[in-house]
Amino acid sequence: MVDHSPSASLEMNLDACENFVVKYSSVHLSTTYMYSQADSEDTPLGPINISFRELWYDADYLDNMNNRRSSLGSESLLEHDITEDQTLEGYWGSTDHGLDYSVLLGYEYQNDIYEIKKDLEKPYHPINCMASQPVVTSFMRCTLVNWLVKVNHELKFAPETAFLAVNLCDRFLQATPLAQDCLQLMATSALTVAAKMEECIVPGISELVAMCGGTYQPHHFRRMEVLMLSKLGFELYAPTTWFFITHLAMKAAESGSWDKRVVSLARYVSETCLCNYEVTQFLPSVQAAAGLLAATQLQRNQGINTTEFHNNVVKVIRSLYTVAEQEEATKCCNMMVVYMTPFLESLSPETGQVFFDPCTPPPLGILTPP
Question: Which residues form the Cyclin C-terminal domain (predicted)?
Fold first, then answer.
């Protein structure tokens, strides 16, 4: 007798991934619900299972949830220090004060770190990852990334973990045709691998099972993680847009002031645009430059003076980027503007203020050398 249970169907699809053969499952597990509910107000993949939330918080993880690794294994390298939500008194205060770089462990190595990550971003950057997918579409990817980012926030992981997880997902999709019912399993496994790279505390198998509402069994997560590591060749530590935003902002602040509002907005724009397949085709360094430029324009449209920081950012971009990369940053920024307009309009429902006019791109001609 043929076994048509969801578990057997999932096993078949995992085997198909390993053999680069796509099999169309008759049981689509969580994704049937996922896409039928895509227009609902809740998360497209459904709310995070309450039993998972209880398991997570009952496991005494809260005490260490904000402790995470940094790029060099230190807790106070650039990403950790600059991304703190609370302003560190005595280090930097309002946007009118500069940074005291002497307090940043590893700051003297930032240029070397940047050069290394800049050289690595092309080999680690997936291009047209959906081209080899006969079933998965860009809309499915958008829905999946949206869910993954919200799970990342729920777990109190650092945003850079989400950026890395999305990179792992896209590279896996580029290397392996995937059946529809394995999408959520792939995203969860990618987030777990990224958390092992970036975080000190990661959820266990039982938490992952509960997070997906019991759709998958523990051995499914183990098999998918092994498959992902195998297909990616254990090349995991990809440069992310988050790192390049931090680096560009710090270089800009060297000759002026640190504008925390612009940097935070740039990170929000870049994180939101992870769902946009066209934007993610640009290199992470290009996305970072585009996010900062879009953020300064947004602040100016709100009546906030960001001229000094904007000019410093432009100087840094012109000094570090080639002419072709500057043109790509301009194009990427305009795409971000169009994509972000609905999100930004919703921030001021009382006034109805439109922060960006898609028909009027930001004045980025300054990026083009005379």
Answer: 239-362
Alpha carbon distance 6, 185 (integer Å): 13
Q: 173: which 2 tokens? A: 């999709």
Contacts of 288 (CB under 8 A, 6+ apart): 241, 242, 243, 244, 245, 247, 248, 266, 270
What's the rounded Cα separation, in Å, for the pair 243 and 40? Answer: 33
Q: What is the pLDDT of residues 41-67, one digit of tens each?
A: 333 333 334 333 333 333 333 334 444
Tokens of 2: 């043929």
The Cα diameter of the chain in Å comes to 74
Scanning 61-182, the segments in alpha helix (DSSP H) are: 78-82, 110-124, 138-154, 159-175
The domain locations on the chain are 6-62+148-231, 240-367
Helix (H/G/I), strand (E/B), else coil: 89: coil
- The yes/no answer on whether domain 6-62+148-231 falls in CATH 1.10.472.10 is yes
- Residue 298's nearest CA partner among 319, 267, 254 is 267
Three-state SS at 354: coil
Write phi, then psi, for 199 (nearest 5 degrees). -105, 160
Positive/negative CA dihedral, 328, 108, 84, 166: positive
pLDDT at 90: 36
Topology (CATH level 3) of domain 240-367: Cyclin A; domain 1 (1.10.472)
Q: What is the pTM of this model?
A: 0.71
